[in-house]
């Protein structure tokens, strides 16, 4: 009887050993970290310069902060959703410092043409969903839509790097600037265009007051313009196309006010006015 029980236990253990790999096949099917770790280009999209740059900058970033920004490109998602795949990959790679949990994963799925930024808990205060979404819209997706893989990945990496560097108050040597591809069509009409509209309107008024009353309003405009730049940087619009568009709208509005009444409908003092950007 005892021998029979042992045989049954052995059979059960063998059965478990057989079925475990079957149920975990998705995990083993996932890509493995390459020897470079920071760049895992399984879709074959990135050139040597881009890979070398990402590895070099990451080594400097890790030495100063313990943070890591890992780039992974895959041919497809193996049937998983983008979020599931990114989460599992992030944990499998063990990105970032174990204690600080300050890793970031940039994942591109070629076949599905999808991109995701996965952020460790230690950096979620700086890189929340809204900010990572905006970074993708401004600095990554416009390039990827045109199959400019190296430009999109490298630019997105630099945008994330800038946020992480500012979070820890460090400067990374040889880090590149980011290039925004945002245009008017990419702005949020409920919030962003309203701010730009207000900036344009105030700038026109200050231009008119400078022309009609006294040059001191020109000095007020300069203070206003500087305040715009500080405000936009404070709310996270620094070094972006949004900042450039806002600044240009302000300058244009002030010039319109200086030129005269033509732009405002022949100097009429009554009635509503609409301004189009």
Could you characterize what this model shows?
The protein has helices spanning 2-23, 25-29, 48-65, 82-93, 129-144, 149-168, 192-212, 216-234, 241-259, and strands at residues 39-41, 68-74, 103-109, 114-119. The chain has 2 domains: 29-168, Diaminopimelate Epimerase, Chain A, domain 1; 184-264, no CATH class. The longest helix is centred in the N-terminal third of the chain and has 22 residues, at 2-23. The chain is an alpha/beta fold.
List strands and helices in order, with pairings.
Blueprint: H1 2-23, H2 25-29, E1 39-41, H3 48-65, E2 68-74, H4 82-93, E3 103-109, E4 114-119, H5 129-144, H6 149-168, H7 192-212, H8 216-234, H9 241-259
Parallel strand pairs: 1-2, 2-3
Antiparallel strand pairs: 3-4
Looking at this protein, list some descriptive labels.
four-stranded mixed β-sheet; 2 domains; disordered C terminus; alpha/beta; Diaminopimelate Epimerase, Chain A, domain 1; 277 residues
Order of helices and strands: HHEHEHEEHHHHH
What would you say the CATH architecture of the largest domain is? Answer: Roll
Tell me the radius of gyration.
27 Å
Outline: elongated
Number of domains: 2
How big a fraction of the residues is strand?
A: 5-15%
How large is the count of helical segments?
Answer: 9
Classify the secondary structure makeup into a structural class.
alpha/beta
- Unreliable spans are 19-28, 182-186, 261-277
Strand order of the largest sheet: 1-2-3-4
